[in-house]
Amino acid sequence: DGGITQSPKYLFRKEGQNVTLSCEQNLNHDAMYWYRQDPGQGLRLIYYSQIVNDFQKGDIAEGYSVSREKKESFPLTVTSAQKNPTAFYLCASSMGLAGGNEQFFGPGTRLTVL
Amino acid sequence: GQQLNQSPQSMFIQEGEDVSMNCTSSSIFNTWLWYKQDPGEGPVLLIALYKAGELTSNGRLTAQFGITRKDSFLNISASIPSDVGIYFCAGLLHYGGATNKLIFGTGTLLAVQP
After folding, report:
1. d(C-alpha A94, C-alpha A102), whole Å
2. What does the pLDDT read at residue B100?
3. Contact (Cβ atoms closer than 8 angstroms) between residue B5 and residue B22
4. pLDDT digits over A20-74, tens only?
5. Is B66 on the interface with A (CB under 8 A)?
6. In this predicted model, what pLDDT tens digit does every residue of A30-43 receive, in sequence order?
7. Which of A56, A96, A108 sits opposite B42 (nearest CB)?
8. Which of B99, B112, B102, B106 is nearest to B29 (CA)?
């Protein structure tokens, strides 16, 4: 089945620790995105990548880092510098440069900082 | 970050009723997307609109791309309990070149009473 997977579904972290969220897609999409969603709010863009080995900051990149070493993978690291990391994190992908603007989302990872 | 004005914020209706929600912006978009999100899951794409004035249906759902390119609406006819969820609009902002950015609405929470 083609799609986007995120793992884990639930993640707990102690304050001061870095944590990495996984996002994998087998849709052969060029572009991948990370969003943050807080309760009762819309989606805010953290980072995006239009092509392998390239990524750009979104609206709320502070305290986060990403890498794009492979087309199918776009991991997000939530660092200890992120002041309020508890949130629902969503990964998405789109055809990007190849055409097609629709973004397709993974199931999300809920991160809770204890 | 920029967000679209989406209304209403929430709707509580009886099964069988029709529903209408809309998004407006001061910016011009060249694509409008409508998503549905179930609790704890990622958004699922419902309808994509590409041309001003375009009217597109997907089963009981109908969406339109406003003539001014600054708004869009989504109608759901004959609602059923499984329509419950949060509906998001998203507009594609073209920055030039290959860089596009999706701007999301704040969401409409739909509750359907059997």
Report:
1. 6
2. 67
3. no
4. 999 999 999 999 999 999 987 789 999 999 899 999 999 999 999 999 999 999 9
5. no
6. 999 999 999 877 89
7. A108
8. B102
d(CA A84, CA B41): 21
Q: Chain A within 8 Å of B104 (Cβ-Cβ)?
A: yes
User: Whole-angstrom Cα distance, residue B45 to residue B37?
Assistant: 9
**Nearest in space to A36 (alpha carbons), one of A71, A62, A13, A12:** A62
CA-based end-to-end distance of chain B: 38
Cα(B40)–Cα(B57) distance, rounded to whole angstroms? 26
Q: Closest by alpha carbon to A19, among A61, A82, A71?
A: A82
Cα A28 to chain center, whole Å?
Answer: 17
Which tokens sit at B65?
Answer: 């791309």
Tell if the CB–CB gap between A60 and B88 is shorter than 8 Å. Answer: no
**How many whole angstroms separate alpha carbon A52 and alpha carbon B8?**
39
pLDDT of res. B96? 54
Pick from B44, B92, B107: CB nearest A42: B107
